[in-house]
Amino acid sequence: MNPDHDRQKKYHVAIIGGGYAGMAAAVTLSTAGVPVTVFETARTLGGRARGVWHKNTQLDNGQHILLGSYHHTLQLIEQVGGNIEQDFLRLPLQLKLHNRFELKAWRLPAPLHLLAGLLGATGVSFNHRLSAAKFMLSLKRSKFTLDYDVSVSELLHFHNQNINLARFLWEPICIAALNTPSHIASAKVLLHVLRDSLGGSRSDSDILLPRINFSALFPERAAEYIKHHGGKILTACKVDAIVPHGNEIELIIHSSTANHSSHPRIFSHVICAASPVNATRLLKSEPQIACIAEQIAAMQHQPIYTIYLQYPEKIHLPCPMLGLDSCIAQWLFDQGQISGQNGLIAAVISAQGKHQKLTHDQLAKEIVREIYEQLNIAEVPIWQKVIAEKRATFSCVTNLFRPIHTTPLANVLLAGDYTAGDYPATLEGAVISGIRCAEKITSEIGFS
């Protein structure tokens, strides 16, 4: 008798959602020898960080970046066959707002790399640079914690960060990290990000720009890893309901995906790693967990717009990643320097703003005008593509209640970047949530 084989027959985990949270859970379970089946509604894996095609060009549904401090995400990418140095363009921390401000971390041990970078920054006075360095030292002494939550703007005011420091340094970091305007953004959550990136080792603050699309970067590799370990990946397969039956859970599959009828629908555990909208839909019909659906539905969301502009191949930016001040576009990414897609520029607009009132065509024209005015690029793009994720992330406001990963149903767990944790809505937050759910199951059933 093989006890591991007997346990494998007894336990089978369903994971609803093939984004970074769901695939992180599936890889972790598969590594431990727990059978899994992943259900993904879309035909493409990746969720809100996925590859898309336009004009025979590989894009992402949004221009995402990673930080060197995303240890869980980077470790999983390598585990499923990735190569971090090949898959990413790694840049030492640098924040460059065109003709306004520039900070670049020095190649020194932490925290000297950041302190030297702050003191050597251009665009603000020396006294203000010194103030920023003192602010970081104060945060480090307090271990990046607060007794109670306040907005990022309030925190900056308390630490005497003047208007230019806020405008050129802290607000861009806040928007990029939390996707939430600083006057409502949670300082507690921002400090968690600063703790692990700017407050960590020198490499933790590195910026990693992916050379390949986000589906290929992890979810597609993870799918092959999971299948190699005996798991199943079902794309274009929508789950309509979660129905508990004692110690087991039945999944009701949508009739349009009847081609998956031969696959199992009864599971020992379910990890709901769907988007907040789909998680709400799945949980609200089951009385024992309907309260969690209400909690998720109460969360507000923020958009991210990515405007892809295909210029002639000779066009390039001064650097791979360039910020703009007082423009609709916040950051520009030169895909020629990052991934070899010459002439392709991605403009990113995070969080709410006046751009939401424009049509996609109007918005693209405004970004083209700004690029001309800021960088004197007069060429007309060959094509343009605006991708608007209107519910890209939860609004990371002060004192926000976020549901934990366990539910009143012991064998139903919740994964996603919006669940309780230190991080805002980031890939690292999503991955950590998936790992946490998987480890909860493996510890319960005795797999290691």
TrEMBL record:
SUPFAM superfamilies: FAD/NAD(P)-binding domain
Keywords: Oxidoreductase
UniProt domain Amine oxidase: residue ranges: 21-441
Keyword rRNA-binding listed: no
Family annotation (InterPro entries): Amino_oxidase, FAD/NAD-bd_sf, SQase_HpnE, Zeta_carotene_desat/Oxidored
EC number: 1.-.-.-
UniProt xrefs under Pfam families: Amino_oxidase
GO molecular function, one term: oxidoreductase activity
PANTHER family for this protein: BLR3003 PROTEIN, PROTOPORPHYRINOGEN OXIDASE
NCBIfam families: HpnE
Name the UniProt record assigns to this protein: Phytoene desaturase, pro-zeta-carotene producing
The species this protein was found in: Candidatus Nitrotoga fabula
